Structure formats: C-alpha cells, structure tokens
Amino acid sequence: MTGASTTDRGLPNATVARLPLYLRALTQLRATGSATCSSDQLAEATGVSSANVRKDLSHLGSHGTRGVGYDVAHLQAEIAQAIGQTQEWNVVLIGAGHLGKALAAYPGFASRGSRIVAVVDADPERVGERVVDGLAIESADELDAIIRDRAVSIAILATPTHAAQEVADRLVAAGVTSILNFAPVALRVPDGVDVRQVDVAAELQILAYHEQRKSSPREEAVSG
Amino acid sequence: MTGASTTDRGLPNATVARLPLYLRALTQLRATGSATCSSDQLAEATGVSSANVRKDLSHLGSHGTRGVGYDVAHLQAEIAQAIGQTQEWNVVLIGAGHLGKALAAYPGFASRGSRIVAVVDADPERVGERVVDGLAIESADELDAIIRDRAVSIAILATPTHAAQEVADRLVAAGVTSILNFAPVALRVPDGVDVRQVDVAAELQILAYHEQRKSSPREEAVSG
DNA sequence: CTGTGTGAACCTTTTCACAGCG
DNA sequence: CGCTGTGAAAAGGTTCACACAG
C-alpha cells in the first residue's frame, strides 16, 4: 500500500517546512528583548500569512494568550522540541569540492542544530586537507566507519552528479536515513529514507520561466 | 479579488517546478540515443509519478504518441521553449564568500540556460580577484551599472544575512525582478518581483524532524 | 478591545481509472 | 495490446471570518 502518506501521524508537511522559519524569527525576537509576539509579527518576519502562522502553531497544541500573543521563549522551546532541536544532529558531508568546502565552512548549521562531524572525499589528493577549524578531509573509504562510530544519521551529498547514486547507496547501507542532496539527480532510496533536493540550476530555471512571462507583451489583461 | 498572481494564465506552479527535471532527464535520454520515451521512463528518471508526468506534459499541449510515448528531441524543445531556455539569462551573483565562489564555479548553470555575467562583493580586498575563467570580482558600487549594461534580470544573493535585505532593495531599484536568495531571511520585495529561497540549514532541520520521528518508539506497524 | 484558535470555504495538487488512439 | 490524455475523485494546503478568552 502506498498509503505511507508523508504525514503519517505527525504535523502536516507544509507546517514542518515552516517551523524552522518561525524558530529563526523567534530567536531574533528574543535577541531584541521581546517577551511576547503576535502571529502578525511572526508573519511579517517569515513571509507567511498570519492566519497560516496561527494554524501552524495550533498544530503544536499551541499556548498563545488571546489578546496578547505568544510567549517568545516558550514558543521557541515548543518548536525546538517539535523539530528535534533539543539535540544536535551529527551530519557527514560527502564531496569536498567548491560547494562541499563552502558548506563545511557555513556557520549557520551549528547555530541551528546540526554539526558536521566529518567531511569525506574520494580524491586521495584532498585527504588530510583542513577545511575548517577542527575538520580535515577524510577518505571515502572511512565512510562506513565514520557513520557508525559518530552516530551519523544525516548526510549532505555534494559530490559530482555521476557519483551521487553510488554514494547514496553506500550511505543507506551504512545506516543513514536522511540525505540532503545537491547533485542534480533523482536519488533512488528505499522506503524510510528521506531525501531533500537542492537544485540551484533548477531554481534559476523556475525564475527564468517567470521572467519570460513578465516580459511577454500582453498577457496581463486582468481587470482594468 | 485578491489577485493571486501565482498562476495567472500560465502553467500550474507545481508543474513549472518540475519542468527543469524533465528537461534534465530528456537531455540524458537523448545522450543515450533514445528517440522516444514513455511517461514511465520520465517518472523513473525524475522521481515524479507517471500520472503526474502525463498531466504536467498535457499542460504544454503535449504531443505524445499513444502506444509509443514522447519524441525526446521534440519534447525537449517544447519544454525548453516553455521555461524560456531558448535564450540565455544573464545573472549577477552578489557575495563572493565561500558560497558565492562555489556558485560562481558551478558548471551546471551554463548547461542549463543561465550565465553568470558578474560577481560582486562589498569587500574592497576581494575586488579584482579571479573567481573563475573570465570572471573577476567587481565592486558592489558597480552593481547598478552592471545590471543595466549587461541586461541582468536575475540575481543570486549570497551575502551575509545582515546585508541581504539592503542588497535586495538595491537590486530591485536597479531593475532586477527575480532573486535566488541564499541568506536565511525573508526578503521584502514589491509585487512583480519573484524570490526563491534556498535555506540549507532549514532543510537539515526538516530532515531532523523526520529523523526524530523515525527513532521514536511508537510506530504503527502497518507495512505489509 | 486585541489577537488567538478554528470550523468552513476555497484553491491547488495528486491520484485514480479508463476511454481511445496507434 | 501499450501508452497517452483526461475527467472525476481524493488529498493536501491556504484563506476567511468570527466566536471567544484575557
């Protein structure tokens, strides 16, 4: 049965995708000293409509106060709990090319619940190279050992396209159950493994579609 | 009527987001010498269901042959036309940090319809530095001139978070109407400007949510 | 009087099922 | 037969509008 709906028993997928945005906004609000905030403020900070914010938060069995809003610290803790940010997640990064190195150096992961515990590359020439403080490139041969020894369940795939599927297979065999894939290819993975795709060229193509329509001579015959 | 400008008169948004995937798959199929392909093959190659593939292609007024499938070359041309890949789009990249440099060096843009015509950074120390063959970092002061002189309508924003909104404002003022934003902040832009957001840390947080549920003890064993 | 929480309406997207063409 | 194209149904998501709590 294909009924393994993405939602299962938890939060709606669309809501899950927005919780990180709320968390980010709440962290900022907290830094500014706000003790409470309204759904309108969260809407403003995240680009989501306020009705949508309220609906999302209501899924958490939310505890807003009518006439006042939400307690920033409390809501922050609530969301952190919901999306598993009470622990740090160990992540392995595969592929130390330009993109891999950029991701390894990105400070935004640590502050948002993920820790890159290893950077791996297939090229022996790169092994040993320091990518960032405390992280040196390791051999792809070590992949299985790294995943097992360092309790890794999430991988970032930043290899060349042609290697992506093979690496994904190895990751899954070694116990990884979530992959963030930057290679422009649809990975085949077994049920129970989550893949999220980041395809930058595709994003530009989507923007190009809209650009094309904007410069189209007259398609804009909406009510005048 | 609150004009929901998302669809207007063109293709459904969800379809537009998948056309680049089909295009990629068709290019590969063509390289292998296949003259035709079925919706099942495209489904396999893209991870989209075959019914969904057919529905998407039918929006293009598609020309498949029943019992046979689609003509690969023809469909490729059809999709390229629909998403504006008959021309190259000039793109400006702002921010030449780790990520900006990685994006500038990414070969996948050129082969998929976008050309980075300038890399710009606010740091005078970086100006003049060669990021890739034929591309040197230019000063952020040149931004307006670059956008106008090089017919740029799409920008990639890879600046630090705190600078993103200000840069976006300048981009819009200079005539940019599409932004691919890597800074983890919700940009405020006027109507008519499209923003697509890439938030890598948020992607990991979404994966973490699912990881948390997987390791959760309560699991309804319905698989059969 | 303010702003949450929520049923109901509305819209988008996906899936199903099958008629019909080659 | 195989595979497209497509109405119809189902699922998923967003917006509306307002009762109601503080």
From TrEMBL, chains A, B:
Modulates transcription in response to changes in cellular NADH/NAD(+) redox state. The gene is rex. Residues 84-186 form the CoA-binding domain. The keyword Isomerase does not apply. This is Redox-sensing transcriptional repressor Rex. NCBIfam families: PRK05472.1-3, PRK05472.2-1, PRK05472.2-2, PRK05472.2-3, PRK05472.2-4, PRK05472.2-5. Keywords: Cytoplasm, DNA-binding, NAD, Repressor, Transcription, Transcription regulation. It is found in: Cytoplasm. Its main location: cytoplasm. GO terms for molecular function: DNA binding; DNA-binding transcription factor activity. InterPro entries: CoA-bd, NAD(P)-bd_dom_sf, Rex_actinobacterial-type, Rex_DNA-bd_C_dom, Tscrpt_rep_Rex, WH-like_DNA-bd_sf, WH_DNA-bd_sf. Homodimer. Belongs to the transcriptional regulatory Rex family. It holds the Pfam family Put_DNA-bind_N.
